[in-house]
């Protein structure tokens, strides 16, 4: 199997220190395009698409493998191993924060740090934990997705993106949702929204930066605080950026937060 083709892996940049960008649910590597130019001069950037997303090899999709986030974490590890990557800074958006954490727990020696963009270990409200959603509401969203996929996409995109004064961003996210295989995206949605990775947080051994947006309806501030409280050697940056996709809606602030963290080796000014 050609892993690099399977995940449409692209490598850019002039440096040697690796930054790997892992996209969120319903997205692909193209959505990092506002961020990557700021790092190309000094870093080696690795971008990829999960199987079923972007320009990945959809023929490699396996429902059993990708029936949990561990299958997606295995993709990351296989890419790292086939490219012989070490000392990796992994930037994961949304669900990729948890996927990246799982990968780092399995092979901590590969990673230098995690940058978690809008992370949530569990989207469902539980006793003593506020994830932001009731389980029945997410079940309802899955039913809408199954019965009216286009309607689901047009509802979810503005909730995720916010920043409606820039409708082109909402449209891009909606088009991204609609461009992907309905069945695969439905499976990925269930794995994303119904996973509970709270017990994984204390297992992470490497330093982490949490980027917490304002008015994020998908991963609110209480979720970010929970992640920080349970993730050793982590710092949290509260951003002015609104919504759930700051790398698209507020790239300059996102770049600044990442650069400050890397320059200060894990401590924010």
TrEMBL record:
<feature type="domain" description="AB hydrolase-1">
    <location>
        <begin position="20"/>
        <end position="254"/>
    </location>
</feature>
<protein>
    <submittedName>
        <fullName>Sigma factor SigB regulation protein RsbQ</fullName>
    </submittedName>
</protein>
<comment type="similarity">
    <text>Belongs to the AB hydrolase superfamily.</text>
</comment>
<dbReference type="InterPro" id="IPR029058">
    <property type="entry name" value="AB_hydrolase_fold"/>
</dbReference>
<dbReference type="Pfam" id="PF12697">
    <property type="entry name" value="Abhydrolase_6"/>
</dbReference>
<dbReference type="InterPro" id="IPR000073">
    <property type="entry name" value="AB_hydrolase_1"/>
</dbReference>
